[in-house]
Amino acid sequence: MSRIGKKPILVPDGVKVSLEQRSVIVEGPNGRLVQQLRPEIEVGLSEGGKRVCVQRRDDSRAARSLHGLTRALIQNMVIGAAQGYERRLEIVGVGYLAAVQGTVLQLRVGYANELQVPIPPGLKVTCPDQQHVVIQGADKQLVTNFAASVRALRKPEPYKGKGIRYQGEQVRHKEGKVSAK
User: Closest Cα to residue 45, out of 63, 66, 26, 64?
Assistant: First the structure.
């Protein structure tokens, strides 16, 4: 039995969970999220919609592997609808900067041309200053995937540490060329 899968999900005040056919819908102050359910998994509401329980129909390998995953996805939806998720990026390097222009994130990170990254709907991207980017949204997967795709445009290099990194990320520095003796 999945230890994570058998834990009930507690729904905080201000968040509403509903089931329609084979999908779970979570609505809260930060937005509305929908997750399709696989046929191996059953989801039930109890205590007036304040607890969500995830169960599997049988003990097949697929059902066992999806049990904890489905519970974790629904938990992330509840947290996202209630509080939201946030990722912060730092831009390190001389002349490197970021700005938001409408629905486009503009990055100058050492290439000949400025990079234009379209911001997906459902995300709020701000730049408190030119070296920091804050990505906020209700969908954890969307927030983290967008942050990872922005970071992948110019990963921090190991010699000087220049590039885009998550806030607080430690970059291991390598020693440069050693002169011959």
Answer: 26
Q: Taking each helix axis as running N to C, give the angle between helix 140-152 and helix 61-82, from 0 to 180 degrees, rounded to the nearest 10.
A: 90
Distance CA 110, CA 95 (A): 7
User: What whole-number distance in Å separates Cα of residue 99 and Cα of residue 108?
Assistant: 9
Cα gap 10→89, rounded to integer Å = 31
- CA distance to 99, 109, 115, 127, per residue, from 83 (Å): 25, 32, 31, 20
In Å, how far from its chain's centre is CA 158? 25
Fill in the amino acid letter for 128: P
Tokens of 45: 């509401």
DSSP 113: S
Segment 134-178, tens digit of pLDDT: 999 999 999 999 999 999 999 999 999 899 999 998 989 888 887
